[in-house]
Amino acid sequence: MNEYFKWGAVFVLLAAGFLCLYLRASLLTAILRFLRRTNADMAEKDRRLLLENRKALQEIERKNTVWLRIGRTLEYSGLRRRFPGLTPTRFLAGNLVLAGICIAGGGLLFGFLPGVGIAAGFLAAEEFALILARAGAQRRVDENLLKFLDFLGNYNLTGGELAGILGQISRYLDEPLRGALEECEAECRLTGDVGTAVLAMGERIEHPQFKQFVRNLEMTTRYSTDFAPLVADSRRSMRDYLSRARERKGMLREALINMVLLLLMSAVVLIVVAGLIETPLGVMLTDPVGKLGLAVVGGIVLIFAAQALSVSR
Is the peptide bond preceding residue 176 cis, with omega within 30 degrees of 0? Predict the structure, then answer.
């Protein structure tokens, strides 16, 4: 009887052992399946979020409304940083009020058409000042972007500490990069969404290399934790960009010198012709042919200025 009891106990223990092994294997399989499903769900959510962010940015660029263009002008020129309460609506309303004052004041002093001319001159001067401000901001980004990448390359970056590192680097840079990095750090800490904050940072700076770096940085924060290759590639691209920019500036300098020489030669020719035909230079320039010639020369100068501005940017 004892012998049967022993064999029965051994059989029960073996069965219990096999059952425990089976339950353990089933439990591990279930846990592994759960982790895989969770990882797949998280990857799908990240993919959807990335697509939504891309779609939102594309929708903004596709609309390209007047308000959006005005807002970008205020952002890129630095006016929004100097006057935080300045919005596209207030900017447009202020311009309309000032243009009305110019027309009314000029109309009372000189007549309606001179008043309109004064208002048009004021708006043209404002546009020229904004263009100069945007060009100056882009030049400062050129001067600071390579420094920014060098500082960034000194850190062993991970997505979680990116916001803090951007805040540390910002104190060594000039505007507008400093303000963009500080706002990105604040938005990261407020929302916890590093990718969206980085994309928003790219919209605050009018610089093609910086925008490209920001897009690559946003993708890296989602799919990798190693930022070193991105920073190295961006440094090489930035050096190539600066080299091409220096070549363009040299070409523009030569073109400007040639344009000035042509204008001086034209003035000399006009003075000589006025002396030969014994006609005052002022009379030559105010008759119909002279006005047409001045209009043509002015048009050429404006076209040259527009081309020079587009090439420099």
Answer: yes
Tokens linked to 178: 């400093």
Q: How far apart are CA 259 and CA 193, in angstroms?
A: 51
- The answer to whether 185 and 172 are in contact (CB under 8 A) is no
Residues constituting the chain: 313
The whole model's pTM is what?
0.65
Contact 177, 141 (CB under 8 A): yes
CA dihedral over 155, 160, 162, 164, signed as positive or negative? negative
- Cα(177)–Cα(186) distance, integer angstroms: 14
CA 173 to CA 72: how far, in whole Å? 22
Q: E strand or H helix at 85, and its extent?
A: none
At 108-150, the pLDDT tens digits run 888 788 888 888 888 888 888 888 888 888 888 888 888 888 8
Structure tokens at 262: 């042509």
What's the CA gap between 204 and 75, in Å, rounded? 6
Provide the H-helix boundaries in 192-287: 194-202, 208-223, 228-276, 281-286
224: Cβ–Cβ under 8 A, 6 or more apart, which residues?
none
Q: What are the C-alpha distances in Å from 229 to residues 38, 62, 71, 172, 222?
A: 29, 32, 34, 23, 15
